Amino acid sequence: MLSALAVAVAAGLELAVGEPPTRIHPVAWFGRVVWTVDREWDHPLAVGGLAAVALPLGAAAIVGGSVALAGSIGPLAAVALAGLVLFLTTSLRSLLSTARGVIADTEGDLPTAREGLLALAGRDASALSAGEVRSAAVESASENLADGLVASLAAFVLGGLVAGGLGLPSLPVAAGAAAWVKAVNTMDSMLGYRSKRVGTPAARLDDAAMWLPARVSALLLALACGSPRSVARARAWLDGVPSPNSGWPMGTTAAALGVRLEKPGVYVLNPAGRLPDVATARRSVTRIGVAGAAAYLLAGLGVYAWF
To answer: Where are the transmembrane segments (predicted)?
Structure first.
């Protein structure tokens, strides 16, 4: 019951607040720590490997210890702090709002849409057409459903389940697990580029951590779109996607809504379709929101049933 309440707290804060300001967001503080690693090293893989292990574990230990300390005050204090942690390690409302804004701008202000896309996708948007900008917005929203929401929810549920099985306090371990996966994902987003050898260990760790959330997100999207077969259809297009995980939610969205999603020069998902028009792109974002709401519901039901 307490773990389910923590999920409810996180969902309620997501609805009420959306996204805290960057200056007071703990994930941004963690990013400043990661930034100190982002430079040239004589042995970049060794430094990157040490950082990929130590920094996420450090974040998890701080969070887990804080929730355990709150639990010594009272169970509701632990619930409140664990729910706050889960809220801070997830993002849905801000993601959907940003995607909708970019899509709306493609109707009459393409330069603004291209600029706004930078908040969603790390790609050069200067030469993208309106349809390609909408495609990028839908791709990023689909991918970030996994990275920004499902991964932390899944870690919270699985962490609590393992803790319960070992006879450990569930809430501190669950919150620590959510913080760990968010830290890994943050390191990958900052360092996980081919040009940064120091980020290679974090990128590989993120690939492993995101394996399950990406596929769960694809299933949620298929259900939200009312197209259960879209996950299987997406498999045919995934070889061209560099990431072993991001293609699953993106490809499922492309299959379920019958649109072409494309990163020029890199991959094409559903090549027989057309780039999304404004109405279809908006519908895609709505379905991603439905999938996100389902993720919260399933996480709450999961911890309630298991713990």
So the answer is: 45-69, 76-96, 153-181, 288-306
- Beta-carbon count within 10 A of 65 CB: 13
- Reported pTM: 0.93
Selection from 117, 91, 89, 98 nearest residue 29 by Cα:
89
Q: By three-state DSSP, how is residue 271 classified?
A: coil
Q: What is the DSSP letter of 39?
A: S
Contacts 24+ apart (CB under 8 A), 161-166: 161/303, 161/306, 161/307, 164/306, 164/307
Residue 189 has a CB neighbour count (10 Å cut-off) of 17
Helix (H) or strand (E) holding 267, with range, is: strand 267-269
Residue pLDDT, tens place only, 97-136: 999 999 999 998 999 999 999 988 878 888 899 999 999 9
Smallest Cα–Cα separation from 5: which of 65, 59, 77, 68? 77
> Average pLDDT of 281-307?
89
Q: Is 193 exposed, middle or buried (0-12, 13-18, 19+ CB in 10 A)?
A: middle
- Gap between the Cα atoms of 282 and 155, Å rounded: 29
φ and ψ at 44, to 5 degrees?
A: -65, -35
Contact 304, 1 (CB under 8 A): yes
Structure token pair of residue 14: 């997501």
SS3 state at 231: helix
Angle between helices 170-191 and 200-209 (to 10 degrees): 130
Q: What tens digit of pLDDT does each residue of 138-193 get?
A: 999 999 999 999 999 999 999 998 988 888 889 999 999 999 999 999 999 999 88
Given a cut of 80, whether residue 65 has pLDDT beyond it is yes
As to burial, measured by CB atoms within 10 angstroms (0-12 exposed, 13-18 middle, 19+ buried), residue 8 is middle
Whether the CB-CB separation of 15 and 93 falls below 8 Å is answered with yes
